[in-house]
Specification:
The chain is an alpha+beta fold and about 170 residues long. It has one domain: NADH Oxidase (3-Layer(aba) Sandwich), CATH 3.40.109.10. About 35% of the residues lie in helices and about 15% in strands. It has five helices and four strands; from the N terminus they run ααβαβαβαβ. The chain has helices spanning about 5-10, 25-35, 55-60, 85-105, 115-125, and strands at about 45-50, 75-80, 110, 130-140. The chain has a four-stranded antiparallel sheet with strand order 1-2-4-3, sandwiched between helices. It starts with a helix and ends in a 27-residue tail after the last strand. The mean pLDDT is about 95. The structure holds flavin mononucleotide. The site of flavin mononucleotide has 11 residues, from strand 3.
Length: about 170
């Protein structure tokens, strides 16, 4: 699959099949993060991968009761040191690489930003000063959502300076 197809096909998936991801496939998907760019090539992220059913269930109340988290095959927490200048950007790019890699491999993802950061850090045993910037569910999609709406390009682009038209 080419990159533009993966970008166009990606959707946030909130319904998953009860199916484990084979270890090799999971590792190939996570490889996307390892290859991601980062400020000064610092690669500051750590990824915590939760696959145990009970551990995933325990994430639900910490993540604003988003029940589908218990049904994904793997929950990935993107962890970084917030004192490092580009760390939040870096970990976000790494997770997006995973999201696009997942599309190619027939897997689905959904970012999880709604969570109690302190509770999640404690649950995952994350030492200070590290924090979870964002989480992501990963698994075999059990839904095929339509593309969600996007702003027209004219609302996003400025040419040469802010407010500059084409
Ligand atoms: C930083 C971030 C945090 C998000 N947090 C959640 C979340 O907690 N729960 C959820 O169901 N979706 C979450 N989403 C998914 C967005 O709702 C979704 O990307 C958006 O509605 C567009 O839909 P699409 O991804 O299918 O194109 C998050 C997305 C991002 C980028």
């Amino acid at each position: 699959m080419d990159v533009s197809s993966a970008i166009q096909k990606r959707r946030s998936i909130r319904k998953y099949k009860a199916k484990e991801i084979p270890h090799d496939l999971l590792m190939e998907t996570l490889e996307g993060a390892r290859l991601a760019p980062s400020g000064a090539n610092r690669q500051p992220w750590q990824l915590i991968v939760v696959t145990d059913a009970e551990r995933k269930r325990g994430l639900v109340p910490i993540c604003k009761d988003q029940k589908f988290i218990a049904d994904c095959s793997a929950f990935i927490a993107g962890v970084d040191d917030p004192s490092q200048k580009w760390a939040r950007v870096d970990v976000s790019i790494a997770l997006e690489h995973i999201a696009l890699m997942a599309v190619e491999k027939g897997l689905g993802t959904c970012y999880i930003g709604a969570f109690d950061g302190e509770k999640l850090a404690a649950y995952l045993g994350i030492p200070k000063p590290y924090v979870v910037t964002v989480g992501m569910t990963l698994g075999y999609p059990d839904e095929s959502p339509e593309a969600r709406s996007r702003k027209p390009v004219a609302e996003l682009l400025h040419w040469e300076r802010y407010g500059g038209g084409e």
